[in-house]
Amino acid sequence: MTVNFAIVKRLLASNKVSFILTAIVVLCATSSGETALSNGNYTWLLAGLTPFFFVFYDFTKLMHLGASKKDYFLGCLISYVILAAGISLVNTMIHLVIDPVYSARTVINLMDVCRWTENGIAAAALQQMLFLLLLMVFLHVLLSMQAHWYGWLTDAILVVIICVFTPIAPLRAVLAGFFQLIMLNGNAVPHICICLLLSAALSLGGLAVLKRKTL
């Protein structure tokens, strides 16, 4: 556990750029219209940026320092859980405290758009946390594959899905149904279970990819 704690501490400390960029966007984002996106939602940017640093910067550094691949990956997962919880907490507090007094008449928070708040604020925060965890694990695994042929194949498949499914109504409905399951889901228990199962499956896939990864 001491090794894992040290790795988590190093991962979070080396992620300063992501923290700074996210903070700047959250604090500087403004809207002059009657409708505005909640500043709290810009905290999600941290979830999108972090995997890039963990995969492309920290992996090499930690391997040179003698960390094992297993410890590195476990450290990443623990860091993602911590960050997902932190982001969810910050956005929830902004939604409760700042959004109601924002100068715009209508403030849109994705917690409402995704229908998570229908289950109460505590459940909504948990749903948000697990969705962000799923997002970070997915990005981590996808980025880890980029040096291999199956990574390029995955990229191509994702592009084809977006380009083909979007313009064709029946396929677009399938794609929309998928996003309703993992994101736009007002049913707390199924949503939480789906996010946990997909995160676990992606984590197992990430371990398999990591075994082949070299410096």
SSE topology:
Layout: H1 2-13, H2 16-28, E1 35-37, H3 44-64, H4 69-97, E2 106-108, H5 110-113, H6 121-144, H7 149-165, H8 169-182, H9 188-212
Parallel strand pairs: 1-2
Helix pairs in contact: 1-4, 2-3, 3-4, 3-6, 4-6, 4-9, 6-9
Q: If you had to describe this structure to a student in words, what would you say it looks like?
A:
With 215 residues, the chain is mostly helical. Helix content is 74%, strand content 3%. The protein has 9 helices and 2 strands. It has helices at 2-13, 16-28, 44-64, 69-97, 110-113, 121-144, 149-165, 169-182, 188-212, and strands at residues 35-37, 106-108. Strands 1-2 form a two-stranded parallel sheet.
